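Tip: read the tokens left to right.
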């Protein structure tokens, strides 16, 4: 059985038929999943979905590319939502230098809020990193308490060196459908270097459909089996063993 650690079940491509999406995931062997919020509205919807399905958990937060649009009252709502019993993580948060919709200084301020709430609630962070590998790793290292920080590097595409620095902080590294792409040899090499007890998988649904379903939209949690099969081969273990390892890791980091 597999655990999809990052999917956007609130997205209209999935939420209009969320019961069918969850049923297909269960039939495919994806027994648990975490629905990830990216702002107040989507975080609230993720909590609603998690309350509806026992196999779904939620994460609440404000994505770095949209944080420019939010204010103190919005953050208070995220803090309030984080108290729901089905909420197991803070995020999606992080930094993003690819898009210019939020200034980098504002992004860092909001990221620090999420980090502080993570420590306050004793919950892991779900961290987005795009075109800011060095900046985000340095900020995590500066923010760590006693050299440690609890979190997941979501849909990781960074280097082995960055992964090792995150691992040294106690973090987990999660891989999405990109690791299955034919030209992703370098990313598979990074995945091979991650210790088994720190490895996670995700779909990032409805985005990043794995090979051989790249042309099929939208992505959904049931497609996680393709990413799992690819990484099981990278790790030279059976898909069943890989599923057990990564599910145990997910349950450990989310505390569920």
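Filled-in amino acids:
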């Amino acid at each position: 059985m597999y655990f999809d650690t990052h999917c956007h079940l609130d997205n209209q491509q999935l939420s209009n038929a969320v019961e069918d999406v969850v049923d297909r995931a269960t039939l495919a062997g994806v027994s648990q999943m975490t629905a990830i919020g990216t702002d107040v509205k989507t975080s609230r919807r993720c909590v609603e979905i998690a309350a509806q399905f026992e196999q779904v958990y939620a994460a609440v937060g404000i994505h770095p590319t949209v944080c420019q649009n939010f204010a103190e009252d919005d953050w208070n709502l995220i803090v309030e939502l984080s108290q729901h019993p089905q909420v197991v993580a803070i995020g999606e948060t992080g930094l993003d230098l690819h898009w210019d919709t939020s200034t980098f200084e504002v992004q860092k301020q909001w990221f620090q809020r999420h980090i502080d709430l993570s420590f306050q609630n004793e919950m892991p962070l779900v961290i987005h990193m795009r075109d800011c590998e060095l900046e985000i790793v340095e900020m995590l290292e500066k923010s760590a308490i006693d050299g440690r920080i609890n979190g997941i590097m979501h849909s990781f595409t960074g280097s082995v060196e960055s992964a090792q620095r995150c691992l040294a902080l106690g973090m987990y590294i999660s891989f999405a459908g990109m690791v299955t792409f034919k030209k992703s040899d370098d990313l598979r090499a990074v995945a091979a270097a991650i210790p088994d007890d720190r490895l996670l998988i995700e779909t990032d649904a409805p985005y990043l459909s794995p090979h051989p379903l790249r042309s099929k939209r939208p992505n959904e949690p049931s497609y996680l089996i393709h990413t799992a099969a690819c990484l099981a081969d990278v790790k030279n273990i059976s898909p069943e063993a890989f599923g057990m390892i990564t599910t145990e890791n997910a349950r450990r980091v989310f505390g569920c």
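The radius of gyration is 17 Å. The CA atoms of residues 14 and 195 lie 33 Å apart.
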